[in-house]
Amino acid sequence: MNFGYAHSWAFGTKTLTSLIEPTAAWPGQRMTRSRDLQIGRLLFGVTYRVTDRASLNWSVEVGATDDATDLRTVLRIPTVLLRGG
Description:
By secondary structure, this protein is mostly beta strands.
């Protein structure tokens, strides 16, 4: 069982936009800037060993900031295909 917190900071971008054929409403170029994103997630995970060759990993992420996804869950089944020896 594990618990954690992950945080990402995505910087905003500047975009310069112009039309191929300018119009009266949009005669030239426009500069827009997107805002920075703060993406925080609370993490929870459980691992269960099914056999000596396979296990189940289940993880859940819950968004802790407005920019984060509300909920994400992943189920993985890692398996050993070949064993040396």
